[in-house]
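Incident log, structure service

09:12 report received: a user says their structure output differs between two submissions of the same chain.
09:20 pulled the input from the user's history:
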Amino acid sequence: MMQMNNINLTDSSRRENVSLHPTMVNYKIQTQKEMPARFIFECAQKLEMKPLTSATAAILYHRFFRELDDAEYDPYMIACSCLYLAGKIKDDKVRKRDVINVAHNTINRGAPPLEPCDEYWSMWDTIVQAELFIARVLKFDMTIVHPHKYMLHYMKSLQDLFGAKEWHSMPIAKAAAAFLQDFHHTSKILDYKPAHTAVCCLALAFQVYGIQVPLMDETDESTHWYNVFCPELTRETYWEIMEKIMDMYNLETIIGKN
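09:34 re-ran on a clean worker, output below:
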């Protein structure tokens, strides 16, 4: 097994305490297993990476830790490496230096950029080594089918059904996209087919805003609008996926109390 440099991004004993803005997550004290995925999306936003790139990084991260015991590796360093690797896969490349500094500042709120020093070069070497290690653990299979492409297809069909003017006046597209991104915070996204995840994010948006799909009778138990897109999606799986998505917001409540 490849040995990586022993560096831990959340080792607070090596850094000064930085006071946090109340709306910011303190990754040093949060222990929920979903935190590194949240860290990925925060860093990706700061790095101005594309949504599919950050989603790719999250999927790589979840797949990696399904193969290995997460206690053996610093999840935040693996998250950094997944971001860097995803940038290559999606041709949305970022410099290692930028990944290092954004990651360091996200863990240590308000900290200045790292100057070349032992910690900087240790992070650099760890990302390089972890990149290859992640690829090996995943058997060099970097193929990811994202729910996003299905969601875009479904949205186009729904827009035709509602009518362009009414569709654009509703918050469904924005809400569904937000649900999809948030579902990437948990490894449970790996448990479902991308098409099912996409249609359930849309369904949850309709549920939240109390909007009914035209020409569909919700009292008819034999036909549901989502089966037009996913005929094999059972009602049980449909409700299960939406419940798993909503679980992410229960976690958000817990984080907000800490």
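09:41 both user submissions now match this output. Likely a transient worker issue. Closing.
09:42 reviewer note: Confidence is low (pLDDT under 50) at residues 1-7, 10-22, 253-258. DSSP finds eleven helices and no strands in the chain.
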